[in-house]
Amino acid sequence: MSHATWTTSVVELASGEPDELGHLDEQSKRDIRHALLTAVAVPGYQVPFASKEMPVARGWGSGGLQVTLAVVGTEDVVKVIDQGDDDGVNAANLRRLIATTTGTAHTTDARTATIIQTRHRIPEDRLRPGQILVLQVPVPEPLRGVERDMRELCRMHAEGDYARMWVSLYEDVVRHGVITRTTGYPVLVGGRYVMATTPIPRFDVPKLHEAPFLSLFGAGREKRVYAVPPHTSVEPLTFEDLPFEVERTPGAACLLCGAKESYLVEVPERDGWICSDTAWCARRRDGDEEAELVSEARDA
Amino acid sequence: MTATVGARLGARQSQAVFRVLLSTLAEPGRIGRLSLEGLGAAVVPLSLAVVDSTFAVVGDDAQLGRVRLATGASAVSLPEAALVALCGAVEPESIARLRRGSALEPELGAKVGVDCERLVADSGRWSEAGVAIEFSGPGVAERTRLGVDGVAREVFVALQEANRAFPAGVDAWLVDREGQVVGIPRSSTLEVC
Amino acid sequence: MGYAAARGGTEAILAAERLVRSRQEGGVSAALRAEQLTERLSLAVDRVMGEAGLWAPELAATALRQAEGDLVEAAHLLRAYQSTRARLARPATVDADELTVLRRIVPAYRVPPGPQLLGRSLDYVARLLNAAGVSDTRAAPEQRAEGAGPEDPTSPVEAVPSEATDRRPGRLLRLLREQGLVADRRRDDDPEPYDIARQPVRPGVPRSARLSVMARAETGALVNLWYRNVLGPDGYIHEITLGEVRHGYLPVRVEHPLTGEAVSVGRVRVTEVEAIEDLDGPGERRDLFDVGYGLCTGHNERKAIAMANLDIAVERDGGRSPLEQSVLLTTDGLDASGFLEHLKLPHYVTFRSMVERKLAVRVAEPTPSPGR
Q: What is the tens place of the pLDDT at every residue in A169-215?
């Protein structure tokens, strides 16, 4: 290391400027930011980054957390959800970590949040321009099921050679009559990269297509980030004669708010369903007009 | 808020600058604004460089020294640099020499700040500017038009050429004298009018 | 409704944490002091440092205590702590020959160059459980001299320190090189080692990356990977002969900011292994040996031996098998455990999606007609 470099870093440390914005040191944040910019410039491409160990374990949202901590500023308002629920223990834990280390404001309202960190769901509310969605990703590699060797995977993405993926989907249809992919459905982004939509349900995949908001995906354990800019095409991989199918159970409606067209999860002991987006559901119960409208538009 | 040109950007400032770089790169052609004045093209290395980054500054040796002192990063030749500031009157040759990465490693493509005089949004007067650019591609809702003063049209032609072999390429931000910023990711298609 | 749908996730977490603290701070036994761990459970502390990939005995003891003995959790605490620390400097390269040995054995030769120094080792202590325990007849801690703490609280007490013993013995490798028996891997250039903390690894990375990954890998992962490749169904590698097994201190030096001279700022205790591989594969030089290298912080011989064997195995494998990918990507304790335990998180959104597909498959025709 050069003399000048050493002097700079010692002076920096001696100056004692506290890192007011989070759990990561400035160098780590800049590394992540650099990777995020590449991700935005090459939509759907998995950018390697120097993932740091976080106070949450690998696999528990360390990637999403690093993305949020690199992005968040004092003016932001942060919403954190897991399975669509603000109050689940995992979301509560992450929110607490972000709040105590950045001092930013928090909300459960997806309409007023500037940054929404989420595991496995996109909120029911229509997100607007300027909002940033940070998705937690366990396995960022969409081709994992068709290829194990990492070098071959890199080549496939570099050359846009997704033939094996198409063959795998075709075999799925032949064998089962439908594409049996459940969540994390593979999509083609910007007409170029096949991307894993984390394990969000198929129901949420269309929200990414030509969206007004920016989506950032963080995979801490696998040490990759990727992104979908606003107004970018996100097309689920399927065949011309086989429409993309989302999860829907005819007749199901939320026991609490009555919604039919939000993403519902089962409650077996009550022989019914409830909204997974708890904040949206609560607003509907409170007679919130906006939530009503969104629901009606989907019912139509 | 004014910052001494070349002074180290603190945590808050770096984050604020980054958000502008992020939003303008995510929506190419839309004008963003830095809250810090006087940074110019150097805003890119100043906000992103870490101690072992490589950077280059063309057209302003004093600025190069300030970036080095502020970030501790190493000044290297233009084709080796990850972070670049093209200051003053920018030459198309500088664009051509930028590091582009490869299909296997797009992340090696350089991030570049480019000085300009003035950015003019598409509000009727854009065509009076020196060069008129029309954006399309990811991040662009409808074809977005932008007027740029102070950058030769050959520079934009060179940028198109540098990004011809997507996903290799370079990602650029135009920064004008008032601190307005426009992002040009390598994914953008530019039509130089 | 399940725990995820319960209101008050924050309250639930706080309650859980109170339970943890009450156990940690309660009970009838005396509170655990960090020095009890560094002195009495030094091998656990060493292992935690090795799996965190750093040298900090007191911090590691604190982490081990906070993690209630969970080694992977303790390593996680250390690494997460390190994430918040800025880098002060980059140390100068150190030659491994500067290692001052506390212990050094050479199984390959009966009388190697330099001493065979058994040192402090549990290898030959009979595995007989001392159920009666150890009675403490030493002076109470308060009665011992103030400020008499050792520089390395985990450093083993020397058995018979001898002034005449060569504490920096030459390597067996040098002898083998003189005899022209070893493949020469020395280089003229001096490439920067791959920094795995700054750049994630993938197959094809330089050897320094592989060594770095293994240096902080989980001990059990390396041992198991070695074992299954020697005796298990994978069967890629065979056992090596050990050339060097060393335990000792390496100096740490940085460049002085004013003089530019290298100054010593401390030392770290490491375990180092050189493994001699008998080349016998197709296309290999049957008249030569090759060498694998293992190094980790703290005293952890099984890890360093596994590491050295896997190092040369990956080198010889040349990417033919998934061995390199296994070593690079599946041996980190934090990654593996974290991902495994993440299965405890709510997964009902994804599960509902799977149920829906199962019903869809039942409804669909088994084989749709082409061109539908």
A: 999 999 998 899 998 899 999 999 999 998 999 999 999 999 999 99
First to last CA, chain C: 43
Chain C residues in contact with A1 by the CB 8 A cut-off are: 89-90, 255
Q: Is residue A154 annotated as part of the catalytic site, yes or no?
A: no
Note whether B149 and B38 are within 8 A (CB).
no
pLDDT, tens digit, for every residue of A87-141? 988 899 999 889 888 889 999 999 999 999 999 999 999 999 999 999 999 999 9
Nearest-angstrom CA–CA distance, C15 and C333: 28
Q: Is B83 exposed, middle or buried (0-12, 13-18, 19+ CB in 10 A)?
A: buried
Distances (CA, A) of A254 to A150, A245, A249: 43, 21, 12
Write down the pLDDT at residue B97.
Answer: 97
Both tokens of A114, joined, read: 């500037």
Using DSSP's 3-state secondary structure scheme, residue C266 falls into strand
Q: Where are the alpha helices (DSSP H) in A120-232?
A: 150-159, 163-176
- What is the distance between the alpha carbons of residues C372 and C363, in angstroms, rounded to a whole number? 17
Task: Note the pTM of the prediction, 2 decimals.
Answer: 0.89
First to last CA, chain A: 65
**What is the rounded distance in angstroms from the CA atom of residue B160 to the CA atom of residue B134?**
12
Q: β-strand B111-115 against B83-86: which pairing, if any? A: parallel
Beta-strand (E) ranges in chain A? 47-48, 77-82, 105-106, 115-119, 132-136, 186-189, 193-196, 214-219, 224-228, 234-236, 264-267, 272-275
pLDDT of res. C6 = 39
| Partner residue opposite A247 with nearest CB, options C341, C353, C372 | C353
Q: Hunting for tokens 């300009």 — which residue is that?
A: B116
Residue B118, beta-bridge partner list: B149
- Taking contacts as CB-CB distances below 8 angstroms, the residues of chain B near A27 are 50-51
Collapsing DSSP to helix, strand or coil, A230 comes out as coil
The better pLDDT of the pair B50, C89 is held by B50
- C207-215 helix and C323-330 helix, angle to the nearest 10 degrees: 50
Sheet containing A234-236, strands listed edge to edge, beginning at the edge strand earlier in sequence: A193-196, A186-189, A234-236
Taking only the tens place, the pLDDT of each residue in C353-368 is 999 999 999 988 655 5
Distance of CA A223 to the CA centre of its chain: 15
Q: Which of C203, A158, A159, A63 is nearest to B108 (CA)?
A: A158
Helix (H) or strand (E) holding B134: strand B131-136
What tokens appear for C248 in the block?
A: 């000792």
Torsion of CA A137, A140, A143, A146, to 10 degrees: -70
Q: Catalytic site residue A16?
A: no
Tell me: cis bond preceding B167? Omega within 30 of 0 counts.
Answer: yes
On whether the CB atoms of residues C271 and C301 are closer than 8 A, the answer is yes
For residue A87, give the chain C residue with the closest CA. Answer: C9
A281 flagged as catalytic: yes
What pLDDT is recorded for position B43? 96
Identify all chain A residues contacting B25, using CB atoms and an 8 Å cutoff. 37, 40-41, 229
The shortest CB-CB distance from C361 to any of A83, A121, A177 is to: A177
Rounded distance between C-alpha atoms, residue A28 and residue A25, angstroms: 6
C287 CB-contact burial (10 Å; exposed 0-12 / middle 13-18 / buried 19+):
exposed
Asked whether the beta carbons of residue C5 and residue A92 sit closer than 8 angstroms, the reply is: no
